[in-house]
């Protein structure tokens, strides 16, 4: 198995945020020039805050750009756990206030039905997405592909046709909605954004042999074909 992804290393998180925002902006700008519009899928969690702020100041034809989520905790957008809330507060600001936003959360009676509604909304965006930005947890999860997740095998199946699946797992906290592997890894460009020595060690382990069910980030790292770059700072 040959896994050879470009690793971009930075002195600190600020330098990484600036470079990642520029890379994403350049890809979105090119997509708008070539195809008239662009779709960007972003992750939540704690790591994206700085590049969200940097990206929000980029001058782009934001009215032609749609931002969506890689995954979502199944909580209303008023919750501090909501990725939609994070994106609205940090990314859909400044220049990027004009961007379109399509979230994953909807107040369906349960997360299974929520996934169906979210699949319809995501399906309307068309594929492939132009850019997907992933994070990673210390357990090797990415998106809401959690080890032990009740729909993990289906979500990381390369031939999965559903855009969104529900996910419940011990390490996940609340139930989640997640884009499936082909939606994410089939994007024209995928960035994996990780910070800290511990996550670098997890990544190095994930690049070795072993099952994607144990370290689900492997499903992305091993997807073919994929254009993936890693952005890392200590
Ligand atoms: O909603 C989420 O939790 C995510 O999209 C998730 O996949 C995240 O990227 C990782 O858990 C890393 O999270 P941190 O950046 O908080 O370490």
Features:
234 residues, alpha/beta, Rossmann fold, seven-stranded parallel sheet, three-stranded antiparallel sheet, 10 strands, globular, binds 6-phosphogluconic acid, 6-phosphogluconolactonase_DevB
Structural overview:
- The protein is α/β, with parallel strands linked by helices and 234 residues long.
- It has one domain (6-233): Rossmann fold (3-Layer(aba) Sandwich).
- It has helices at residues 13-35, 49-56, 83-90, 111-123, 152-155, 181-185, 197-206, 217-221, and strands at 6-9, 38-42, 65-69, 71-73, 100-102, 131-134, 164-167, 176-179, 189-195, 228-233.
- The strands form 2 sheets. The protein has a 7-stranded parallel sheet with strand order 1-10-9-6-2-3-5, sandwiched between helices. Strands 4-8-7 form a 3-stranded antiparallel sheet.
- β2, α2 (49-56) and β3 form a beta-alpha-beta unit.
- α1 packs across α2 (49-56).
- The chain is globular and about 40 Å long.
- It starts with 5 loop residues before the first strand and ends with a strand.
- The relative contact order is 0.18.
- The model has no long low-confidence stretch (mean pLDDT 97).
- Bound molecules: 6-phosphogluconic acid.
- 6-phosphogluconic acid (6PG) binds at residues 43-47, 70-71, 73, 83, 135-137, 142-143.
Sheet with the most strands? 7 strands, parallel
- Alpha-beta content class: alpha/beta
| DSSP summary, beta strand count | 10
**What's the gyration radius in Å?**
16 Å
CATH topology: Rossmann fold
Name of the CATH first level: Alpha Beta
Count of helix runs: 8
Note the run of SSEs as H and E. Answer: EHEHEEHEHEHEEHEHHE
Oligomerization? single chain
Indicate the CATH architecture: 3-Layer(aba) Sandwich
Give the uncertain stretches in residue-range form.
none
What general form does the structure show? globular
Q: Determine the mean pLDDT.
A: 97
**Helix coverage percent:** 25-40%
Q: Strand-residue fraction? A: 15-25%
